Amino acid sequence: MTWGILVGVTFMKLENIMDKLKSNGYKITEQRKAILEVLSLNHNNLISVEYLFDESKKIYSKTNMSTVYRNLEVLENLNLLYKFITDEGTALYKLRCCDKHHHHIICKNCGRTEIIEFCPINTLIELSKDKKFDLTDHKLELYGYCIDCQNSKDK
């Protein structure tokens, strides 16, 4: 199942992703190639693990679910993958679109996802220091309704 559309972004090339994997000591196996191909083909969608598994098996039949999970973990650890948790607790994934830091605005109805290049992190770092926190990471997701859904009655 796919969910969402990412608009107006330049995406990392598959070769760059494979180069980063290799430079971090990971082999490019047939299963990994299939998983990366599915993620790449769905670069503008947030996809479920089940969808990724099903589509990867169509490309390389020996792909198994545990390998999909391991690859998602590797990609996430290398900051190559964006993970989104729905209100229902379902994890959805997509390849990171670019190296530039950004955040997302997500339509609660259709899942349309757009990039916001604004980040309030400097203010948040100062606030975290006041609270004696060492801020190591952050994620900002804004939710609302896109123009199409605002005009529909499905909201």
* Oligomer type: single chain
Determine the N-to-C terminus distance.
Answer: 21 Å
Summed up, the helix count is: 6
Tell me the number of strands: 8
Mean pLDDT: 82
When the domains are counted, the total is: 2
CATH hierarchy, class of the largest domain: Mainly Alpha
Helix and strand sequence: EEHHEHHEEEEHEH
Tell me the CATH superfamily of the largest domain.
Winged helix-like DNA-binding domain superfamily/Winged helix DNA-binding domain
CATH topology of the largest domain: Arc Repressor Mutant, subunit A
Structural class: alpha/beta
How much helicity do the residues have? 25-40%
What does it look like?
The model is unreliable at 1-11 (pLDDT under 50). This protein has 2 domains: 10-98, Arc Repressor Mutant, subunit A; 101-155, Ferric-uptake regulator, C-terminal dimerisarion domain (Dna Ligase, domain 1, 2-Layer Sandwich), CATH 3.30.1490. β4 and β5 form a beta hairpin. By secondary structure, it is an alpha/beta fold. 39% of the residues lie in helices and 19% in strands. It is globular and about 50 Å long. α2 (30-41) crosses α3.
Summarize the structure.
The protein has 155 residues and is an alpha/beta fold. The protein has helices at 14-23, 30-41, 49-59, 65-77, 121-130, 147-150, and strands spanning 2-3, 6-7, 46-48, 81-85, 91-95, 103-107, 113-116, 141-144. Helices cover 39% and strands 19% of the residues.
